[in-house]
Amino acid sequence: MVVSGISFRRSMVAMLLGSSAIAAAQPALAQDNKAAQAPAADGVIYVTAQKRVENLQDVPIAITALGAEKLKDLQVKELQDVVKFLPSVTIQTVQPGFSQVYFRGVASGENANHSGPLPTVGTYLDEMPITTIQGALDIHAYDIARVEALAGPQGTLYGASSMAGTIKIVTNAPDTSGTYGAVDAEVNSVSHGDMGGVMQGFINYKISDSVAARLVGWYRHDGGYIDNVHGSRTFAVSGITQDNADLVEDDYNDVDTYGGRLALGIDLDGNWTVKPTIMGQVQKTNGSFAQERSSAVSGKLQTVQYNPEKSKDEWYQAALTIEGKIGNWDLTATGGILNRKDWTQSDYSDYSYFYDALFGSGAYLYDNAGDLVSPNQYIKGKDVYHRQFGEVRISSPQSNPLRFIGGVFYQRQQHHIEQNYIIDGIADDLKVPGTTSDIWLTQQKRVDRDYAAFGELTYDITDKLSATGGLRLYHYNNSLVGFYGYSAGYSSRTGVAACFEDAIVKGSPCTNLDKSTSKTDAIYKANLTYKITPDALVYATWSRGFRPGGINRRGTLAPYKPDRLDNYEIGWKTMWGPVRFNGAVYQEDWNGIQLSFLGANGLTEIRNAGVARIRGVEFDVGYNRNGFSLDFSGSYNDATIRKDFCLIANSSFDCTLAGSDGTDNELLAPKGTHLPITAKFKGNAVARYEFPVGGWDGHVQFAANYIGKRRSDLRTLENSIKGNLGAYTTADFSIGVKKDGYRVELYATNLFNSNGVVNTSVQCLETTCGDYAGDSSTGGVFYDYVIRPRVIGLKFGADF
To answer: Which own/partner pairs from 651-658 qualify as long-range (CB within 8 Å, at least 24 positions apart)?
Structure first.
């Protein structure tokens, strides 16, 4: 079933108006979420992990929550800063706005491009899912109530994109208690780089006793630290020399981020609340965020790029949430839209250089006069996302021994993909029809649709023992249509030559891909929780998560199927006076892994090709007394594949069996190979002491983070070529004072200037380009995406 945008909007309006009618007919006290917005008191942190307000220590889930003050204390500005302090979470990024997060080692090395599988981790902004195909939105962290990290499958309540876990970003809601606000400013400097700064502020305005508005705004400039150094090289076939002298620049990867949020809170006659919100952000980047591994550079934080590189990522989210009661049952109706556009320009000349040297591809690149042109290639991309979302749920009184929460869910994600691979000056017959100078064009529309009904039922067997069962019935219908490939003059088999229909997607010359896949199924959850004392509980959980199947970008390949994650977990939550000790041990079985990798012509290929097992433990220990606090958290994950991974998948995982067309098979990774991206051990520690200083409240804080060695690729050969990602440690320090709403703080992040690598890539690898000793023994230039060097900053702020 396909629901059009018009019918969806009409349905949402009818649903929300219908909720208002119910409010008039059934007067009741509106839900009070103020406890969840309030600062922690006596160590109590309130969360909404189970879509209701609860004390974190009472939630039988492995969850880490960072509140508003903690986010400030830890110098959190963006998603990557948060992940440092989430023990079960790993981040893989290529630049701001293009990051993937992973829980508990559930990662197969996805390249996360526009035609890749859906993420394994769902990201929510308040009530709305905001995960897009290429990663979560990179939201500037200001006026945020808290960030919740829910480890393990959350599929019952959160759905398809929460197979391995969920991250919730909860904003501060409008407050009818009064008018107040704050302004904050910062100036900083990055080591070996440039200056940066932040200006941000908010005002909470009380319009009446039942209506309030909250307006938030921010601007941030991050100084660059990667130098584009001089380089030149000569293409083998044409003898044309490429030189980047006009692009040489120090600290050329600077970033500007600005945005705002406006929320309105309306209490309807004391019974119901309505909260419309609109939020948007623009992020502009220049340059590359990777240091190069090649003979062309002399040190770290350097690269040689031959074409301009930049991006612009802009998005806005509009959402409406209505909360109230039907009798003594709580009802929440929420819906919204997310529109996102990003424009990118990136250097792709390595690919051209190695293909020319190895295969002589430059001999086929000529102008209209028949003369050879430079094979230099660059990419201009444009991605347009549109998401519609709606959910209605009800929950019974939490004081009852039998409790229920359930509802219905709908979302539609549409992604218009445009990727122009450009070689300037090529002849008209080599250009993809309708383009200026594209040697290759991707012009496609991807649509991912999700429908679900979900519910969880909890029963108190005794005063101390509770049992919960959960179910989610789901249906997905995903499609990909459009064009990819060369002109008919450049290839007689692919691209235009393979078209079977006129253009369906605007901007494409014709259609050579039009496929869809769908499935209806269910996932489940079971939990037992035993409350030993009011301050201690233990729980046992079995939960299942899933990820929908989809369409391969290469139309000749079959659609890939869903994969599934089964989680078996035993956890505990305890408070011993000033000491908090939470933890969990678990095993996760990952079946039908959607493995994505680059195949022929650099096209992503996705197939279900593996079985993995993750065994691990995570812990969170905290102490807080007399102004001194100490927190430790960490995780250990032994994540390995349990069957041989073959080039051509088969049900017996036998790599000696040839393909159905007689193609030779190959062992890519043997049983027992560790999954990539996630270290076996990750840990952090934060120590803070607060003390009086001449009538002011002072503080000093030290934090340390450690991430162990990781594989860069699941496949044995590719990992040996690209290399492992090395272990690294970072340290942060801050000291400051505050009094009567004024505050000053001096801080340093990555104090000892670690050069930790979070991701690595190469435009041309041995499997596609072969060996070439002319520049690199592996036929490619490698790029390591590193953490930001040491930043020293001075912050000022005032409340009013």
So the answer is: 653/611
